[in-house]
Amino acid sequence: MSSDAPRRGEFLSPPQPSPFQTPDKPAAIIKPAASRGKVLGKTLISPSSTHSTSTSGGAHGSDADRDSLANLRIAVHQAKEAAATCRKEVSAQRDRVFDDLERAETIILSLLDRASEVAHALSEMTSAKLSAGQGKADSTSFDELAAKIRGDGVGYLAGVKKLHQLLAPHASFVKTYRNQEEDDTIAPDNADKTESTDATKNVNGASGKLSDAIIKKATSNMYAARVEKRLALERSAILKEMIRLEELESAGDARDMVGTSPPGIKRKHESLEEDLL
């Protein structure tokens, strides 16, 4: 150790004034040096703090991704449940429609049977009336048949009302039949309206246009198309039968003419055949 070093227990000498120090100008105050890790009075960010900040940001991002994925799964699940509920409703509605159609078919069959019974009773009423006029005793009287027909009419009306109650709620599913081949010939709705208005205004001879419009509208109905087809088939069968009868009559007339020809004409035809041979 050097001898100049202060010993323990000795007082240090006070600092000597600087030669540049004057009473008017104090000595410059020396600021302590900046500590390590500080630049321009600002604390430097250590790598460990940066890593912790990035780790916290990544944690927040992963949480947001998890929340969005969970929300997406919930939305998909809700959409599947809504679609399943809609399918169940549609299936239930379809089943109700089919059940009502089956019941309506049963009612229609019973109405047809009742109508057949009424037609048979009407024919029996005619024969019973004739027998009563001739003084013959019949098993069923006219009054009994009339009462039976009256009862069948009441039942028929009740069946029609029940049929209407079953099918009226499903009227939106019914689509009218239109013949696609006659779309060009059918006038539009505006033309039909103008024709109907002109028909109502013109009293003399205006019913023809109105009837034509009604016929055009009626041909677009499925029932009317079926009736028209059935009438066309019957008309064709009648024409074929008429042609067959006409051919038979013409063949019979020819045979009669050959069998009843005069003998002179017959001999003349035979001589011509011999000359030709």
TrEMBL record:
Region Disordered, residue ranges: 1-28, 40-65, 180-204, 250-277
Segments of skewed composition (Basic and acidic residues): 1-10
Biased amino acid composition, Low complexity: 48-57
The organism's place on the tree of life at top rank: Eukaryota
Protein name (record): Uncharacterized protein
Organismal lineage: Eukaryota, Sar, Stramenopiles, Ochrophyta, Bacillariophyta
